[in-house]
Amino acid sequence: MSEVATPGDQFTVGLVQMTCGELMSANLAKADALIARAADRGAQIICLQELFASHYFCQREDPSYFDLAETVPGPLTTRYAALARRLGVVLVVPVFERRGPGIYHNTAAVLDADGALLGRYRKTHIPDDPLYYEKFYFTPGDLGFPVFNTRFARIGPLICWDQWFPEAARLSALAGAELLLYPSAIGWHPSERAVDGDAQHDAWRTVQRGHAIANGVFVAAINRVGHEGPPDEGLDFWGQSFVCDPAGKILAEGSVERDDVIIVTCDRADIERQRRGWPFLRDRRIDIYSGLSSRWLDDGAAGPEPSGEPDGDG
What we know:
The protein is of the alpha/beta class. Helix 3 (166-174) runs parallel beside helix 4 (190-215). It has one domain: Carbon-nitrogen hydrolase (Nitrilase/N-carbamoyl-D-aminoacid amidohydrolase, 4-Layer Sandwich). It is globular. A hairpin with a 5-residue loop joins strand 4 and strand 5 (117-122). The protein is built from six helices and 15 strands. The protein starts with 9 loop residues before the first strand and ends in a 31-residue tail after the last helix. It is 25% helix and 25% strand. The chain has a six-stranded mixed beta sheet with strand order 5-4-3-2-1-15. A six-stranded mixed beta sheet has the order 6-7-8-10-13-14, with helices on one face. A three-stranded antiparallel beta sheet has the order 9-12-11.
């Protein structure tokens, strides 16, 4: 039987948000410096934003961008394994992964504090919207929702569009994640920002706070910042990376328009406190959720009628 967490049983997370340009070497040098800054401020688990090594190339369909992809393990994971080992921190490193000829993934590699590659998560939900043409580039992930027991905490990495799906958060929490991490690349179309910008940002933040509350876990979103694309088109990435606690309270939030490092210390006792007071995991009716595995319930039936009390084991 595991011991109950007590106040002081903590881990510290650092989020790195930054502007990105066309030159990969410049992006990597900036990321290195911001990671070092986060570590110097006490971060133990540091996460970079989605596709941080390049500009957000998914704004258009261009086969030449497949040349940006690399294997895992590969140059990026080798570089950041060495940095993780030198600084003694866990790094979550997004990678445009080349799995094989014509098979590419949007991936997050997890490097432990000794530099060991613990594994990877491949983005499961792939969007296809104006300026987010990700289905052209990425094969949907096939690894499920792995959770990694790092030196400092048990983490569940997810990626951007995944943040809108409660199933991903729930399965990661059920696997024991204490912290959900969402490296992201989300922003406004400049033509929509004035009218819909506040509502879009509020929806993004609200849904992730909801995952924290419903699952009793810490949640961190790490977003790009700055404008990418033609001045009157392209995307205005809204930054505002944040960490919230298991009650959904925002503990810290980054800038809207500039590079930033966000540092938050998370207390495991907050997980226990939230789940005792709001025991959603206890009260789940796992005997009547079979409909969740369907695309749509054509006959209108939301699941089987319960037959007595559930046995608790499914």
